[in-house]
UniProtKB/TrEMBL annotation:
One Pfam family cited in the UniProt record for this chain: Lipoprotein_9
Database matches in SUPFAM superfamilies: Periplasmic binding protein-like II (SSF53850)
Name of the protein this chain belongs to: D-methionine transport system substrate-binding protein
Organism in which the protein naturally occurs: Pacificibacter maritimus
Record membrane topology: Lipid-anchor
Keyword Lipoprotein annotated: yes
Membrane is among the record's keywords: yes
Database matches in InterPro entries: Lipoprotein_NlpA
């Protein structure tokens, strides 16, 4: 009986491998890449083989998805995706939520926002969505006041009041950790902070609230949202195994959405 059971198991595994779906999923460095490694392990026995493709910026993953080079991506929040679809005409759709990564303010020169002097240099992301997100955080911290009606994508041009005369440096998000030697503060997305060895909860001098609109998502091309592999991808991501990994490894700097 044991021999028959073993043979049956082997045949079942072989059949699963034979008919497994294979997809490429684009991620950004840091927590998104690390989490997707766990998702891939969870998805494999469910009949889904995930090839993880890592991108170094925020623009290419949506272009690659729209062009058919990958089947899904997992790196962005909803406002950024909506802005990309509006500006570039991408026909993409959200199939599931993933994590929230509160943006943090980091500094090698001050330990408290109140210590910032007049004319301090502030580095923020140069893409409209994350740059706007950084400015909204700085407004919440009382450093600036933004014009009414700018929504989630204000720019430095929308600053109405800047009592400290802060000087804004708009840079590629991936380069922001390198600016800490020069700028007084830098507002950095968690994935790039993590890649540089920084933890938003422990190393930032201020952190975004976790209940904002910036939940991250899994996106696919319009028309693929009902594919079996898309459902499996979401189920694998929103699994107990992935939740446990996040809670054990990111010390509160990454928060699950499920």
């Amino acid at each position: 009986m044991l021999r028959l059971t073993t043979l049956s198991s082997v045949l079942a595994l072989a059949a699963t491998a034979l008919f497994a779906d294979e997809i490429k999923v684009g991620v950004s460095p840091g927590e998104h890449a690390q989490i997707m490694e766990v998702v891939a392990k969870v998805a494999a026995p469910m009949g889904l083989d995930i090839d993880i493709v890592e991108f170094s910026d925020y623009v290419i993953p949506n272009t690659a998805l729209a062009d058919g080079d990958i089947e899904a991506n997992s790196f962005q929040h909803v406002p950024y995706l909506n802005n990309q679809m509006k500006d570039r005409g991408f026909e993409l759709v959200v199939i599931g939520t993933t994590i929230t990564t509160p943006m943090g303010v980091y500094s090698e020169k001050v330990s408290d926002i109140a210590e910032l002097e007049k004319g301090a240099r502030v580095a923020i992301p140069n893409d409209p969505t994350n740059g706007g997100r950084a400015l909204l955080l700085l407004q919440d911290l009382g450093l600036i006041t933004l014009a009414d009606g700018t929504g989630l994508v204000p720019s430095p041009l929308d600053i109405n009041d800047n009592p400290k005369g802060l000087k804004f440096l708009e840079l590629d998000a991936a380069q922001l950790p390198r600016t800490l030697a020069d700028a007084e503060i830098a507002v950095i997305n968690t994935n790039y902070a993590s890649a540089a060895g920084l933890n938003a909860k422990d190393d930032s001098i201020a952190m975004e609230k976790a209940d904002g609109p910036y939940v991250n998502v899994i996106a696919v091309r319009e028309g693929d949202q009902d594919q079996d592999w898309a459902n499996t991808l979401v189920d694998a991501y929103q699994s107990d195994e992935v939740k446990a990994f996040i809670e054990e490894n990111f010390a509160g700097s990454v928060i699950t959405s499920w």
